[in-house]
User: Fold this.
Amino acid sequence: MDFEKIVDRKQTSCVKWDRAEKIFGSSDVLPMWVADMDFDNAPPIKEALRKMIDEEVLGYTFPPDSLYSAISNWQKDKHDMPVEKDNILLSPGVLSSIAVAVQAFTDPGDSVLIHDPVYPPFYSMVNKNDRNVYRTSLTLRDGQYTMDFQDIEKQFLDRDIKLFILSNPHNPGGRVWTKDELVQLVELCKKHQVILVSDEIHSDLVYSEQTCLSPVTLDESYKDWVVTLHSATKTFNLAGVKTSFILVFNDTLKEQLVKVQEETELDIVNTFGMRATEAAFSEARDWKDALLEKLEANRMIVTDFFDKELPEVSYMVPEATYLFWFDAKSLSVENEKLRETFAKVGKIGLNDGISYGPSGSSHMRLNFAVPESLLIDGLKRIKTVFDHYSN
Ligand SMILES: Cc1ncc(COP(=O)(O)O)c(C=O)c1O
Assistant:
């Protein structure tokens, strides 16, 4: 577990590093954008994959019971959510699961509600499936995002919303929703017959002062309204193996999901992903605990840096995720130019907030899951941009 080792990821078809030039228009940008960590993978996962390559033939495979047990044990131990094999649907990715949920629970022309701001593919996935996407703005309270339940209920009614997609915890703000917030949300869903898709891909990366709750665990009746999406790929940085799972407890909801999955072959996951997921959940728990300590230390470095070096910049302290959301409005650079400005002036690649929705205006998102030396380098590059505009 050497989280300070610099891993050279260039020329490995790595989106974060090898697409940086295309995205940011310059080859000397330090990429701190897409949610992908610059740490070596956990040794037990690598070992499981190595063993497979050495000893097995890579023909057709099916999900073994041991994979379902690994997922059940993880959900029970880490999320207080007892799940049986029957409740687990494997899926190539959380975004594939969102597409499946959209097709399963809505018809073309139906309306889906998401937060503003939120992870951009929520919008595009619904839109590409010919459904209407509406946004409910998160409001700022004590420097953190909170939900506007009045607006949510109004939109449920006015727009006849069929599906709500929640990022739980929230990407990009790093918010861990409280029990009270989740209960209010699901109660509204129940009242207005809206299915809630809870995307919990970041739910294992939660800092020590917080507990991330799965809405489905809060009341037995919520099982009829909530579908949970999760994966080992964010926690253990395995996005390339394309394996995730849907947790569903209601028979009708499950039937609807299975129908779409079977029609599209999105019920099949790949051999490497199954093996990696099982090894991660069963054998890499210590690695994950150590990772969280490292991320917590990095979070402190980032907030200390902003407090001392950039006191005029407001930001959100993430309660979960390795994502840091800050407001670059003091630069007075228009949204369309922000990403390019950070790339050109600071030589740093960040996600631009406007792509997360109108409320992301003037914001930028930094990924701090990197060795300390890269983090310090990245923070200095960000400061260069602010210094450039203040002179
Ligand atoms: C909230 C959220 N959902 C889904 C994904 C992507 O999941 P997958 O790679 O399994 O499609 C991400 C990736 O960053 C994410 O932040």
